[in-house]
Design brief:
By secondary structure, the protein is an alpha/beta fold. Helices cover about 45% and strands about 15% of the residues. The chain has ten helices and twelve strands. It has a six-stranded parallel β-sheet, sandwiched between helices. The protein has a two-stranded parallel sheet with strand order 6-9. α4 runs parallel beside α5. The N and C termini lie far apart (about 45 Å). It binds NADP nicotinamide-adenine-dinucleotide phosphate. The site of NADP nicotinamide-adenine-dinucleotide phosphate has 29 residues, from α1, α4 and β4.
Length: about 300
């Protein structure tokens, strides 16, 4: 049995969907059902569900919001994971904890490896790095899985925002000097469900790993792929203009390089990520078709 905390988020919902499709035993808890920072609630959930492995899909993910609301970021990204890790250690249960490329400062040439020093440049990254440390301290049998640029059919994300903007704007100006790998929550969920039974069965499987889609692009490249995929369905082709980070100031600084080296994950778990473009196209197509169908329903 896999127990997922934070099951109403992008990753949580894809874990639930994939487990149902693959007949995998999975118990999903939303924030309303269990707050990961509530030690009594977490302990009760572990007793009730008796999982073989815990997946922490819960997090405070508002990168700009964390700059002014560090208390909430810390609660979701440091205290919560610490509470989960302590409870798992007491119960002898391994945990797969999801983290982020934003623990790095983005100044490295090439891809980041698991052994590279973390140096977050924003409050969200600091809270996630602190969460990683808390998990490492409290629980030996942990997997910390760093990923990047996550999107899905659910919740709020870059892919959905671009599709919405393309419906109403004739020009989209998108940052072209930040590099990373757009990662489908669906693929991330598949990777987690693939490793979960191995992690549950083998105490030697622990440590930090990177998992993103294969290949790299920029936010501009990501947006162009979304728009060109949706255009034949929606009939909308706004002009795409590359801009720099300096042209688009945000409360939180973003790393210029978010590329993660995933070879350790691939080698250890024999699971290779799919190319980012293929996955983005699949989600963009699904969402564009859904929006066209619902528009027809309205008219
Ligand atoms: N999104 C990205 O681009 C990105 C990039 C790199 C890494 N990651 C990491 O990937 C993981 C999954 O991200 P995601 O995109 O699926 O996030 P998400 O869509 O924002 O979902 C996070 C979920 O966690 C829940 N949550 C927040 N605080 C909680 C608490 N104290 N107790 C229980 N649940 C809580 C939220 O509840 P509500 O629904 O009530 O808000 C939400 O359902 C996170 O660890 C994130 O840091 C994400």
């Amino acid at each position: 049995m896999i127990l997922v905390f934070g099951s109403n988020g992008q990753l949580g919902r894809e874990l639930v969907r994939a487990a149902a499709a693959g007949n995998t035993a999975l118990w999903a808890l939303t924030r309303a059902e269990t707050d990961i920072a509530d030690a009594a609630a977490v302990a009760a959930a572990l007793i009730r569900c008796k999982p073989d492995v815990v997946v922490n899909a819960a997090a405070y993910t508002n990168v700009d919001g964390a700059e002014t609301n560090y208390a909430d970021a810390q609660r979701g990204n440091e205290l919560g994971p610490a509470v989960l890790a302590v409870a798992c250690a007491r119960a002898g249960i391994p945990m797969i904890h999801v983290s982020t490329d934003y623990v790095f400062d983005g100044s490295k040439e090439g891809t980041y490896r698991e052994t590279d020093a973390v140096h977050p440049v924003n409050a969200y990254g600091r809270s996630k790095a602190a969460g990683e440390d808390a998990v490492r301290r409290a629980l030996d049998h942990h997997i910390i899985l760093r990923t990047a640029w996550v999107y899905s059919e659910f919740g709020k994300n870059f892919l959905k925002t671009i599709l919405e903007l393309a419906q109403t704007r004739d020009e989209l100006r998108i940052v072209a000097d930040q590099h990373g790998s757009p990662t489908s929550a669906r693929e991330l969920a598949a990777a987690i469900l693939h490793i979960a039974p191995h992690v549950a069965a083998d105490r030697r499987l622990c440590g930090t790993y990177h998992f993103t889609a294969e290949g790299k692009t920029t936010w501009y490249g990501f947006a162009c792929c979304i728009v060109s995929t949706a255009a034949p369905i929606t009939g909308r082709s706004p002009k795409m203009t590359p801009i720099t980070t300096a042209d688009y100031p945000t409360p939180a600084r973003r790393p210029a390089n978010s590329r993660l080296d995933c070879s350790l994950f691939v080698k250890t778990f024999d699971f290779a990520p799919r190319p980012w473009r293929e996955c983005v196209q699949a989600t963009a197509r699904t969402l564009a078709m859904t929006s066209q169908t619902s528009e027809k329903d309205v008219t």
